[in-house]
């Protein structure tokens, strides 16, 4: 079985966020970090070189594959802010309709800027990510 490439590291979350080149994206990333820390009651940790993860969970798949992963996280990517909120993205269609401008993947939410979404709805989606 292949070894997971993205693992928790000791790299600094603050140093990583300070290096986000675009000022607005950097500010939005700090806001998202604060929301996720408040919700998960866990400090952000770097996973790999570009993902900030919160909390820990051990996943076990039907195939027998097991891995340690974060409860939720985000990455300020060049094209967008990618939020990893497993479960909430798939199971909260009513909230997503009210969120504002976004795209979604299987467990990811892609937004360009926080000003394009309803922050109250985003906080609720993050909260729902803990239920999963």
Key terms for this structure?
Aspartate Aminotransferase, domain 1, 5 helices, alpha+beta, two-stranded antiparallel ribbon
Q: How many strand segments?
A: 8
Low-confidence stretches: none
CA-atom Rg in angstroms: 14 Å
Task: Note the run of SSEs as H and E.
Answer: HHEEEEEEHHEEH
Which structural class matches the secondary elements?
Answer: alpha+beta
Sheet of most strands: 6 strands, antiparallel
What is the residue-averaged pLDDT? 91
- DSSP strand content: 15-25%
Q: Provide the CATH architecture.
A: Alpha-Beta Complex
**Top-tier CATH class:** Alpha Beta
Cα(first) to Cα(last) distance is: 26 Å
What is the CATH T-level topology? Aspartate Aminotransferase, domain 1
Tally the structural domains.
Answer: 1
Described by the principal axes of the CA atoms, the overall outline is: globular
The strand line-up of the biggest sheet is 1-2-5-6-8-7
Number of helices: 5
């Amino acid at each position: 079985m292949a070894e997971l490439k993205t693992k928790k590291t000791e790299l600094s979350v603050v140093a990583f966020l300070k290096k986000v080149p675009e000022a607005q994206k950097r500010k939005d990333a700090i806001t998202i970090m604060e929301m996720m820390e408040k919700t998960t009651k866990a400090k952000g940790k770097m996973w790999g070189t570009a993902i900030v993860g919160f909390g820990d969970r051990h996943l076990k798949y039907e195939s027998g594959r097991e891995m340690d992963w974060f409860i939720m996280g985000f990455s300020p990517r060049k094209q967008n802010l990618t939020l990893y909120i497993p479960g909430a993205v798939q199971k909260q269609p009513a909230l997503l309709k009210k969120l504002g401008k976004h795209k979604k993947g299987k467990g990811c939410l892609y937004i360009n800027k926080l000003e394009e979404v309803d922050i109250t709805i985003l906080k609720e989606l993050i909260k729902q990510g803990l239920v999963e």
